[in-house]
Design a protein that fits this description.
Elements lengths: L1 E3 L5 E3 L3 E4 L3 E5 L6 E10 L4 E9 L3 H25 L1
Antiparallel strand pairs: 1-2, 3-5, 4-5, 5-6
Length: 85
């Protein structure tokens, strides 16, 4: 079963091994102004997908809220998928 995240990435729920917590990754090395927050989806084939948002220090709460919502929606869909399997 496929699930589309808000950033457009599509993941196959049957291939997910785990989902990390949302973490602040600190300053973005490609930018002076922005930092990065992310969570990682780990797949059964040992690959992973990082879902991230760049944010300005004054907007960190909004970035975290969006990522937490994406992560929670993914976890809910994953639970539904596993309950049906």
């Amino acid at each position: 079963m496929k699930h589309e995240l808000s950033d457009g990435n599509v993941v196959d729920l049957s291939k997910i091994a785990s989902v990390s917590v949302v973490r602040d990754m600190g300053a973005d090395p490609n930018s002076i102004v922005y930092s990065k927050m992310s969570f990682t989806i780990h797949f059964k084939d040992q690959s992973s997908l990082e879902i991230s948002r760049k944010y300005h220090y004054s907007d960190w709460a909004q970035a975290k809220k969006i990522l937490e919502q994406d992560r929670q929606e993914l976890l809910n869909k994953l639970r539904e998928y596993k309950a049906r399997a």
